[in-house]
């Protein structure tokens, strides 16, 4: 979502809070798949402004959408060309709700406004000798946006963490107050019955401040390896080798795997604690140390996308080319072996990467099954990729990205993709898989649908469970994402077990007038559809 767009200031919806400037603006998300030509947009300065906005919206039949950077791929802020968008007000949190403050006290805590970027939060912490124990790989979106969806990075070393949402110890949200019959700001602490619903709410709430648990800053080493083939990385457990995913996680703790399209080549990045700079590592002092991947102007991304769209077979050469470019880029920038503060290594992907539409799923399992989970995925992915190719269809024109984290704590964010499951306390790791592709690629939805159906059918308890990565693509029909009724109303609620109904009911109670929602969330977050099949 761009900030610098012009807008008209001379009108406002009827009865709109006078103290809050509001303009009509176009909205489009990062991947350019969600467009709304004209939507009322304001920038609340305080939580009280959000309260005034919510009460106005409730009494005038409008809805409010908290908006960050618009980096979510799917319809979480607005739906594409949302029919009732004229009765929506976007509340852009980035302009004013962006404070960051380290709290005094024994335990390192940081209080942050939802509009602060993840990067600015990490930079502020670093100035105080602190860090987060887990963070997203890109820091250019808002804390509120990352928490809403259960933002994650990579890393499963003990004590393993799942999502950033699980780091929240307290939060303020604007919720319905039955006693006064109005919306009001309320504070929630970990352990309060409603808090677990608000830690990851997919956009069904408005959070105005959070307090996160931090840790002492530490240094990491990130080593790249571009020589491993997918056969080794995703080997069957009985054939696993030192560069198989489970072995890398065991040895280093954190791994990011890129598997290039129509190729068996990979780029492995491992992250491990290194208090002292290893002699072969280059010290870095800032984030995003792979400039050859993330300095791609949007126009270039569009051209590549269009060329591959018009000549789908070109996708067959993309993987080898991307691999060669990565090898050359790592050498040219001396980035194959880096050492530095945690934020400078864990933030490694800027938004100016190629603008792919990403699918996203988390497969929650136990450590002993980790290699089998990734092997099964790779086997099916390869079968589908090659089967489509044999029919001269080339939907898989971007890499597969795979990361591994722990799961969230019991009692943590209920709607987190890696929420703990009381029926399966042995599940302690999660494989996050994204399949990337240029937006609009022919047969992409079909391909994603086949892969997603496999995942929901194959990864079943007690082996594993699959949940959607909310901000990415999922719920595929043969022509669209976020659309399959069986996934939205069946597979997804079932993946959360009995807690689905509880959490949806809690979110409804906190916002009974559905001020904070949109047509997609109305369809998704329905009580009564939960429970395991
Ligand atoms: C290049 C790139 C890299 C990415 N890397 C990662 C990654 O490493 N790990 C990961 O987990 N994800 C990653 N993502 C996805 C990203 O975390 C999510 O899309 C996130 O939601 C983006 O935040 P945003 O500020 O853009 O939120 P938006 O897209 O603007 O909003 C997303 C949702 O959050 C809600 N929201 C925002 N603020 C608030 C608030 N104050 N209160 C309540 N709800 C709120 C919105 O209403 C909406 O439902 C990446 C995305 C891109 C484009």
TrEMBL record:
Domain FAD-binding PCMH-type: 33-217
GO molecular function: FAD binding; oxidoreductase activity, acting on the CH-OH group of donors, oxygen as acceptor
Presence of keyword Oxidoreductase: yes
Family matches, as InterPro entries: Cholesterol_OX_subst-bd (IPR015213), Cytok_DH_C_sf (IPR016170), FAD-bd_PCMH (IPR016166), FAD-bd_PCMH-like_sf (IPR036318), FAD-bd_PCMH_sub1 (IPR016167), FAD-bd_PCMH_sub2 (IPR016169), FAD-linked_Oxase-like_C (IPR016164), FAD_lactone_oxidase-like (IPR010031)
Keyword terms, alphabetized: FAD, Flavoprotein, Oxidoreductase
Name the record gives this protein: FAD-binding protein
Organism: Saccharothrix syringae (Nocardiopsis syringae)
């Amino acid at each position: 979502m761009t900030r610098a767009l012009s807008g008209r200031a001379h009108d406002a919806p009827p009865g709109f809070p006078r103290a809050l400037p509001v303009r009509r603006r176009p909205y489009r998300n990062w991947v350019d798949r969600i467009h709304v030509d004209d939507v009322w947009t304001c920038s609340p300065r305080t939580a009280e402004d959000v309260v005034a906005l919510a009460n106005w919206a409730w009494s005038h039949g409008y809805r409010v959408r908290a908006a960050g950077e618009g980096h979510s791929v799917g319809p979480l802020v607005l739906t594409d060309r949302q029919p009732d968008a004229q009765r929506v007000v976007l509340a852009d949190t980035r302009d004013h709700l962006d404070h960051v403050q380290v709290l005094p006290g024994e335990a390192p805590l940081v209080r942050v406004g939802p509009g602060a970027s993840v990067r600015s939060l990490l930079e502020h912490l670093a100035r105080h000798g602190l860090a987060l124990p887990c963070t997203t790989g890109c820091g250019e979106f808002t804390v509120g946006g990352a928490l809403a969806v259960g933002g994650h990075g990579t890393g499963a070393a003990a004590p393993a963490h799942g999502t950033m949402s699980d780091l929240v110890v307290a939060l303020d949200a604007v919720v319905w107050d039955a006693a006064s019959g109005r919306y009001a700001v309320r504070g929630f602490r970990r352990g309060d019955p409603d808090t677990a619903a608000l830690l990851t709410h997919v956009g069904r709430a408005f959070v105005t401040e959070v307090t996160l648990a931090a840790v002492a800053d530490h240094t990491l080493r990130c080593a790249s390896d571009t020589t491993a083939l997918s056969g080794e990385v995703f080997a069957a457990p009985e054939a696993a080798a030192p560069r198989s995913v489970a072995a890398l996680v065991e040895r280093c703790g954190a791994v990011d795997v890129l598997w290039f399209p129509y190729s068996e080549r990979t780029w492995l990045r491992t992250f491990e604690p290194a208090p002292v700079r290893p002699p072969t590592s280059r010290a870095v002092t800032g984030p995003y140390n792979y400039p050859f991947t993330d300095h791609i102007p949007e126009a270039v991304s569009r051209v590549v996308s269009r060329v591959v769209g018009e000549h789908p077979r070109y996708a067959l050469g993309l993987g080898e080319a991307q691999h060669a470019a990565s090898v050359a880029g790592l050498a040219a920038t001396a980035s194959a072996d880096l050492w530095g503060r945690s934020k400078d290594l864990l933030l490694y992907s800027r938004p100016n990467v190629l603008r792919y539409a990403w699918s996203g799923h988390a497969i929650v399992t136990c450590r002993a099954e980790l290699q089998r989970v990734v092997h099964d995925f790779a086997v099916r992915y390869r079968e589908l990729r090659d089967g489509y190719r044999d029919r001269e269809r080339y939907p898989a024109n971007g890499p597969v990205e795979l990361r591994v984290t722990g799961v969230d704590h019991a009692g943590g964010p209920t709607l987190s993709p890696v929420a703990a499951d009381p029926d399966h306390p042995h599940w302690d790791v999660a494989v996050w898989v994204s399949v990337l592709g240029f937006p609009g690629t022919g047969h992409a939805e079909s391909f994603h649908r086949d892969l997603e159906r496999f995942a929901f059918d194959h990864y079943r308890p007690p082996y594993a469970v699959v949940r959607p990565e909310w901000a990415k693509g999922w719920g595929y029909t043969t022509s669209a994402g976020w659309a399959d009724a069986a996934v939205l109303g069946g597979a997804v609620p079932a993946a959360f077990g009995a807690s689905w109904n509880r959490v949806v009911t809690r979110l409804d109670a906190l916002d009974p007038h559905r001020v904070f929602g949109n047509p997609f969330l109305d369809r998704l977050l329905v009580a009564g559809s939960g429970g395991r099949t």
